[in-house]
Amino acid sequence: MVTVEMNQIVYQRPESLADMPTHYCPGCTHGVAHRLVAEVMDEMQIREKTIGVAPVGCSVFAYNYFDCDFVEAAHGRAPAMATGVKRVLPDRVVFTYQGDGDLASIGMGEIVHAAARGENITVIFINNAIYGMTGGQMAPTTLPGMKTTSSPSGRDVEQMGFPIRMPEMLATLDGAGYVVRRSLHDPKNIRMAKKAIRLAFETQLRGLGFSLVELLSSCPTNWGLTPVESLRWIEEHMLPVYPVGDYKVAQALAGLRV
Amino acid sequence: MPRELLKGNTAMAEAAVRAGLEAYFGYPITPQTELLEYMSKRMPELGRAFLQAESEVAAINMVYGAACTGARVMSSSSSPGVSLMMEGLSYIAGTEVPVVLIDVVRGGPGLGNIAPSQGDYNQIVHGGGHGDYHPIVLAPSTVQEAIDLTVLAFDLAEKYRAIAIVMADGNIGQMMEPAELPPMRPLRTEYPDWSTRGAEGRERRILSSIYIDPKEEEVMNYRLMQRWRTIEANELRFKEYFLEDAEYAVVGFGTAGRVALSAVRAARAEGLKVGLLRPITLSPFPYARLDELAEQVKAMLVVEMNAGQMLGDVQRATKERISLNFYGRMGGITPFPDEIHAEIHRMVEQPLPPGSDPRAAWLDSFASVLHVDGR
Ligand SMILES: Cc1ncc(C[n+]2csc(CCOP(=O)(O)OP(=O)(O)O)c2C)c(N)n1
Predict the structure, then answer these.
(1) Does residue A74 sit within a domain?
(2) Chain A partners of B48 at a C-beta cutoff of 8 Å?
């Protein structure tokens, strides 16, 4: 039996996470994603040299929750803004944190070109298959047949097109150093997600080009499901469309153990 | 520094470099492209950042990010590209970071053409982007002035944490003239106490245009407006020619002002007591000086390379007290001195009655200039 001393700390807030309650809905995985990024920042001791770029979406206030310098971008423009920061301060760590509407719809141009340039930034990409902040409209990542407030009879692919798989697309670009998809629906996958986030930041630190980790995430409020049902929904419905996997891993990262 | 024969676009680029520019982001568009091309060679040569963005939308957002580091940064473009930048400019204004933009204006609307125009006055001076903010807008009429105003733009942007725009037209960008470049300033080594460069040994900093509580947003707007009053009080710039004893005044900026000066000289040679007011800052605008002039002169003629976008500001200043007349060329046409000379005569001989609509009168008579049916 494992004994734990009464005053031994076994779990605490990472230093890189500011001490403040978040505005995220109960059961939303934005909080998990924030924590993973903060843990990685702690482990790599990069908090003091990191500049984050917040998006427009539910994570618009991400800047409040990380204890590092932050700037707040216009909708979809985070990769461009991050480029501006990074080009002036190439020795700092720069990351964006973006939702699927932000990154794969209005910001499609900016993300593709940042990747194509091999921009030395890290992108944390939250795919919840919906526009969370504006109340549950269809996103480019919304699943075929999925009901949203702007696809009330379900996404009809004949009319509204098909889901976009970003890592698969971006992996075709030579500038991409590390492009993967992970999921936040259970502890095992969360641990895998953290490793990927670590590798993405390692990619940047090593100057190996653009890095992106897509995280399959839940939106209980706008999906109309309980938090537990939402996690199951990710597994049952999102995973088949968005397979977890490594889509591009720069050769130089291959032997790296984190 | 010796005077050299310099092209406007490259002269503005080198002036920016010498003013301590640390990063440039842009996208090709005529008649501005030489500026970007010059930067693509010059900036890396000096170990400074240059990037050709994928669009003007991206370019202005790169500038936004770079400005957050406290570095001296800029972009340049021409009218259709500047239209695309309006979103970014509003965010930049809302975040209170200093940015310089050079707009080498061309004929529009739409894709229009690549000829010189002043059709961006409204979108630059009176907004474009959403919300209450004013950029500082500087309008050069020579290559030398384009150089000097580019340097000034950086200093003003930084002093007021504001956007400073050099609004040139295609003539200024494309023309070669003898001019003198300023000495090279050293790059800054200290950065402002708001800049986000990594929270090493200090509290984190956040730069954002969000004030989710309307009460705080109102306070922020109030701060911007009060700062604007300071700018209005301190940074007004205009140039006067032959106005001391003038009974008639011409008002024009940039190339239109320069061409008007030739016409005013010709009219003076005929003994007409006419002078010229050439606003250099279009924003802040010389309302007070025009207000005074309206007490002095019998009539005014506003000359622009657009359909009277500055005219409204002159009307606001002169308040129907005097005869106000207008002459404009649109769509990328630069007026000849003769045309303005003829309009000076029209103002003297057949002044419009005070309070009448100068634009309507101009449109009526303009049909004959175009050789089209006026209806
Ligand atoms: C230019 C612009 N268009 C639209 C909006 C409104 N808007 C705010 S958030 C958002 C969607 C964000 O969705 P997503 O990126 O999927 O992030 P989530 O909220 O789901 O985390 C939209 C459309 C905006 N702020 N700016």
Answers:
(1) yes
(2) none
Is residue A66 domain-resident?
A: yes
Q: Does A228 touch chain B (CB under 8 A)?
A: no
Collect all residues of chain B within an 8 Å Cβ-Cβ radius of residue A53.
65
Distance CA B195, CA B172 (A): 34
**Residue B61: which of A63, A67, A73 has the nearest Cβ?**
A73
Q: What residues make up the domain containing A198?
A: 30-256
**Residue ranges of chain B assigned to CATH 3.40.50.970:** 4-186+207-234
Q: What is the ipTM of this complex?
A: 0.95
Count how many domains chain A has: 1
Asked whether residue A22 is assigned to any structural domain, the reply reads no
* Ligand 1: residue whose CA is nearest its atom 2: A75
| C-alpha–C-alpha distance, residues B25 and B30, integer Å | 16
pLDDT digits (tens, 9 = 90+) for A50-82: 999 999 999 999 999 999 999 999 999 999 999
Least Cα distance to A36 among A168, A180, A200 occurs for A200
C-beta A102 within 6 A of ligand 1:
yes
Closest by CA position to B93, among listed B66, B57, B130, B137: B130
Of B58, B59, B204, nearest to A68 by CB-CB distance is B204
Q: In A, which residues are within 8 Å of B207 by CB distance? A: 70-72
CATH number of the CATH domain containing A71: 3.40.50.970
Taking the whole predicted model, whether its pTM rises above 0.95 is answered as yes
Pocket probe for ligand 1: among A53, A133, A217, the residue whose CB has the most ligand atoms within 8 Å is A133
Topology given in CATH for the domain delimited by B4-186+207-234: Rossmann fold (3.40.50)
Record: fold of B238-370: Rossmann fold (3.40.50)
Q: What is the pLDDT of residues B325-351, one digit of tens each?
A: 999 999 999 999 999 999 999 999 999
Is A1 part of a structural domain of the chain?
no
Q: A76 CB under 6 A from ligand 1?
A: no
Burial class of residue B55 in the structure, from the number of CB atoms within 10 Å of its CB (0-12 exposed, 13-18 middle, 19+ buried): middle
**C-alpha distance from residue A148 to each of A155, A222, B243 (Å):** 8, 8, 67
